[in-house]
């Protein structure tokens, strides 16, 4: 019995060590991808002027002229700190948990969102254009995804949609970025990067403030657990000035946006937005 107990204890210790090593490996990957994306910030950025958007549809011009002040440096990489609530359930039983997160956003090249919940069964991990990795109790993996066309397409939709919210300079017209009018107060930006393409609609108010961002996202967040295009969207509010930009500090987002099945699983209160300088 003593030998069996010793063997069992040894296996438990080996398992714990393996889980700790996996977590350290994941955190190292987070840091490496974060640094890669931060280095994409322009070293000598151009500055915004109304002439840069003069040829765009009127709602798009309104959007840019609200979001970016004349003369502001065109910085396409942002770091966002946030708190709020994240649902671990569904529309009928949302099970919202307090959460905190930090994110780097560098469209069209990628993003990293590192999050943890507090209370109940703690969830922590990160989402990116390359992986989705989450664990409970800081060690036990419950999701390890990535490296597939479905994951890449879904992630691309997310961070292009978020670039409309927090990094408008990344969406100025140019290679891979086109704008079209959808309605009197709505414009559609389409971003192409390699084999990936995503269209996002932004609806603005009379001043150009983006109040709704909506798009068709490639997702398996449905009862069938099958990847397909389905509505996703966000409602934006609490705009504040940050380094020559007017950006929302409150975002409510969820699946099946604009339908009776809409479920806002992400309720974020931004605590800080930074535009990192290129490391020396």
Structural class estimated from helices and strands: alpha+beta
The SSE order reads HHEEEEEEHEEEEEEE
CATH topology: outer membrane lipoprotein receptor (LolB), chain A
How much of the residues is beta strand, in percent?
Answer: 35-45%
Strand order of the largest sheet: 6-5-4-3-2-1-13-12-11-10-9-8-7
What gap, in angstroms, lies between the N and C termini? 60 Å
Radius of gyration, in Å, reads 20 Å
- Helix proportion: 10-25%
State the shape.
Answer: globular
User: What is the number of E strands?
Assistant: 13
> How many structural domains can be distinguished in the coordinates?
1
CATH architecture: Clam
Regions with pLDDT < 50 over 5+ consecutive residues? none
Instruction: Please report the first level of CATH classification, the CATH class.
Output: Mainly Beta
Write a short abstract of this structure.
Helix content is 23%, strand content 43%. With 280 residues, the chain is an alpha+beta fold.
What do these coordinates show?
The N and C termini lie far apart (60 Å). The model has no long low-confidence stretch (mean pLDDT 91). This protein has one domain (2-274): Clam (outer membrane lipoprotein receptor (LolB), chain A), CATH 2.50.20. Strands 6-5-4-3-2-1-13-12-11-10-9-8-7 form a 13-stranded antiparallel sheet, sandwiched between helices. It has 3 helices and 13 strands. With 280 residues, the protein is of the alpha+beta class. The chain is globular and about 80 Å long. Helices cover 23% and strands 43% of the residues. It has helices at 2-38, 58-67, 149-166, and strands at 78-87, 96-106, 110-117, 123-128, 131-136, 140-146, 177-183, 186-193, 196-204, 210-219, 228-242, 245-255, 263-274.
